[in-house]
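Submission sheet (multi-component)
Chains listed below:
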Amino acid sequence: MRRDPISTRRPPPLEGATDLPVMKPFHLPHGGRGAADLWVGAATDRRLGLALGLTLLCWVLIDSAHAQVQADADQTVFQTLVKWTPLMLFGPEGEFGGFTLNILVSFLAMAIGTFLGLWLGIGQVSPIPWLRRVSWLVTQVFRNSPWLVLLFYVMLLIPFQVEIFGEDYDIPGWTKATFALSLPIMANVSEIVRGAIASIPTGQWESAESLAFSRRQTLWSIILPQCVKRMLPPWMNWYCILTMSTPLMSILGVNDGMTLTQNALAAEGRSEFLIPLYLWLMSWFFLYSYPIAVYTRRLERRFVVKQ
Amino acid sequence: MASSSWTPDQPIVALTDVHKSFGDLEVLKGVSLSVMKGEVICIIGPSGSGKSTLIRCINALNDIQSGSITVEGLEVHDPDLDKLALRKKVGMVFQQYNLFPHKTALQNIMMAPIKVLKEPADQVRERARALLKKVRLEGKEDAYPGELSGGQQQRVAIARALAMTPDVMLFDEVTAALDPETVKEVLVTIKDLAADGMTCILVTHEMGFAREVADHIYFTDRGVIVEHGPPDTFFKEAKDPRTKEFLSQIL
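Outcome: structure written.
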């Protein structure tokens, strides 16, 4: 008795439906699918963005005016913001840090997480049972762990110094944080990859098989290229989430934007600067992420309409 | 493996007492048939009679439980079968075309010879263009599958299978998903192919076409071959009541 080649060679049936937002039925506000409706959707995006931006600006203005009244005449809130901006953006002199470190960490963690997640996702649809199970387990563990707990774990697990050829090298905290943040990204990318592969019709595997493609050739030259389009919107979504999560590393003493804002506040020692300074930092994150979010939504909409 | 022992006077494809089940459902209950080189055979029968399963077993897309299948002496039922060697000999066209949507028509045709047979791209491109011409799709080289009609896509799929220079072609209800007006262009392509001497095994619902091109017709019902014969005798002098009933409904 032999087992059916379909069941042994093709990725196994996957439990549960895909969680890709792109695959869900999409309904535009007016129920239509024409170009006009798409334009309305884009305009809504723009209006929403404008409204949010203005709210933020008003908040800063009103609050600063308020603070100005209370503050000593020698220093306005605006002067304070300007004074601390270089530190909050680029870190203390001679040292790399600040908001730009948040962005750097987000880039690196995304790159590492995507690379590892791709392999893990492919592992999840492997014809080899043990590999499939291990990949599934790793994915589930890191997908369902709080990011902060992962951060603490990695910080404690990786030593503060390593000795290589008799010399001591420091491992900077931000590299550990980068690695820690890449773990949940890895797990979520793994799920994105698994879902995208599962969403490709089985006919694609069959026709490739009948053309004498090996499984590996089919995966890399036929299936995965078709997955890219489906994976892009959720992938970008996770990038935004990751960027928003980078201030978590301030809890572990990394000199990121959050830590330095706290330092600035401590140096000023005046509570009325608390809200303006944090708002200032928040607006940077907003300005960085919002365009990405808008673009992601546009991509999603485009792919849904095409399918 | 006894692939070297095959000679053209033996059947190029031979099935002997093939049994196939999906779980508890027995789909093929002892099917035997043989096809000589250059022959065109059509398999007809009601839905769910196992026609598609039968044809898919021939290139090992489905595995069988017992019996034997040989293609040019290759033992398809052998667990150690070199599937790639088999699939280089057998081309297949599907009901749903299954073209690769991210590649152009020409790239669809060129992909397998380059990646699987490792042939030089220039040589393959020439052959692919000739094949597109053969299926009457000159000028559609750079069109993506989404830009082609169903009939055009299906003809690209035929050209794609032919690019591997197979000895046997399998057609699994290739016109079933097509608009009536595009069915003809696909059937003409298959007819050309048959006229060129290609061994063809077709599962089809196109009775007129089967009558015209087939050398032999097999009628399947509930997993067995009920009746078979050359088209003239098959359509005029069907003996089995099941065949008669099917033909009366369809003709």
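Remark: Chain A touches chain B at residues 1-6, 201, 203-204, 206-214, 217, 221-222, 225-226 (CB under 8 Å).
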